[in-house]
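Hello forum,

I keep getting stuck at the same step: I have a sequence, I want structure tokens, and every attempt I make locally crashes halfway through. Rather than fight my setup again tonight, could one of you with a working pipeline run this one for me? It's a single chain of 219 residues.
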Amino acid sequence: MAIGDQNDFFSRLKAQIPKSWFQSSPNFDATLQGPAWAMSTIYAQITYATLQTRIATATDGYLDLISNDFFGTSLPRLPNEQDGPFRARILANLFVKGPTRANMSAVLTLVTGRVPTIFEPSNTTDSGGWDGGFYWDTGVGQWGAPMPYQSFVTAYRPITNAQSLGELDSYRWSWDSYGAWSDQPVTAVTDAAIIAAVESTRMTGTVCWMRIEDNPVTP
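Reply #2:
Ran it on my machine without issues. Output:
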């Protein structure tokens, strides 16, 4: 029995009836199941409607309406695209501020929930001044190279274990025609959505060498 389902409302209703009125009556219990079903249906619809008020929790066709509201017809749902990847593309395009490294990192973090690693070989701040004509990532430090207008971007896929996330938004609550609940993780984001986030924040004329991993490399 879950909060808000038919059995929950049935128990609540029956608890309000004096026990002296009915000792054991299957007919009376069957009568209470009617309003219990109606209340559970309304509760499910209210909960479902609440989810649609935020992009982070919106599902199904409401995500399509959100995309159309912000972007018109320029950002439609791709064929067979699930809610998670579509939501990630909406957020990535919604919060794009400009083609900067900081914004690329911010958008990737927003889409995946994890901070990416961005390395510019020609940036002495990244490489510490090493310039040997090549790029080398030792896993501990990185050496630079004369590679202007180029960067190495390592993005990390979202953590799909809902227990480790510990967030309400890591679940998709949906209501079907039978008034049943389903908890489906929406933390999955396709590699294509991650690449799109980089493309939306990459400065024109620059090259981003990209790598997508599940977990950072531990030295």
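The chain has a mean pLDDT of 75. If your local run keeps crashing, start a new thread with the error log.
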